[in-house]
Amino acid sequence: MRPMLRSLLAERFKLAFHNETRDMPIYALMKARTDGKLGAGLTPATIDCAALGRGRRAGGPPPAPPQPGQKMECGMMIGPGKLNAGGMPMSNLATALAPQVGRIVLDKTELTGNYDFELTYAPEALGSGGGPPLLNGGPMPVDPNAPNLFTALQEQLGLKLDSQRGPVDVVVIDRIEQPAAD
């Protein structure tokens, strides 16, 4: 699909671009404590999701979504102010955090293997309106006592986001034109 889209953009808009690496602000996801102790919301996975996935491909049913208060078995659910995952590497957590903090997040936890994690935090206001996040057109219920994302990471998972500079892959547009009339 991507090659077809690239071809269309090049043909219709005379789009020319290149990729390059730039030194930009990033966050490094790291252990928060010097002794390496993790928070109660982050535990090594107890289910082999790869083996479970092989069983599903052989005709087994997919797992049911978790009930409220239950842990996610294999996969990740992200909602406003909530992140629930089972059997995921830390790199997936870093990727899931990036849209929440507006920067690339690199996994520098040195934690190998898969983990279960559950994180609850006060979501930031979406958009420029400055109000609470919306759910079905109305304000989403937000726990006024929930910590912000940075505090929740430290308190619940024993991790932190450290502001750094690092290499970021970017797309640079060299040329683009208005399309010609059909």
Polypeptide structure, described:
The protein has 182 residues and is of the alpha+beta class. The chain has one domain (22-168). 23% of the residues lie in helices and 34% in strands. It is built from four helices and nine strands, in the order αββαββαββββαβ. It has helices at residues 2-13, 49-57, 90-101, 149-157, and strands spanning 16-31, 42-44, 75-79, 82-88, 105-107, 115-120, 134-135, 138-139, 159-175. The strands form three sheets. Strands 2-6-4-3 form a four-stranded antiparallel beta sheet. A hairpin with a 2-residue loop joins strand 3 and strand 4 (82-88). The protein starts with a helix and ends in a 7-residue tail after the last strand. Residues 126-131 have low confidence and may be disordered.
